[in-house]
Design brief:
The chain contains three helices and no strands. The protein is mainly α and 73 residues long. It is elongated and about 55 Å long. The chain starts with a helix and ends in an 11-residue tail after the last helix.
């Protein structure tokens, strides 16, 4: 994994945690952090969405045929 992929994965995980908090406790972490500022919340949600799409693309395009155990890479 390169740094770009790790950053995208981190944003996606943070977004997932936020949705978990909303579902379980009706607590929106993004709204709490941005103190209700609409523009800042939209920027964060947009970044998380873009990172999620990037992670989906990485997932589908990095999947290839399985390698044999004794195959030299």
């Amino acid at each position: 994994m390169n740094i770009f992929q790790k950053v995208c994965l981190a944003f996606t995980i943070i977004g997932g945690i936020n949705w978990g908090l909303i579902g379980l406790f009706d607590f929106n972490l993004v709204t709490f952090i941005t103190q209700g500022e609409n523009m800042a919340s939209r920027v964060i949600y947009t970044l998380v969405g873009i990172c999620a799409i990037i992670n989906i693309l990485i997932f589908f395009f990095r999947l290839g045929p399985c390698r044999k155990e004794n195959e030299i890479i």
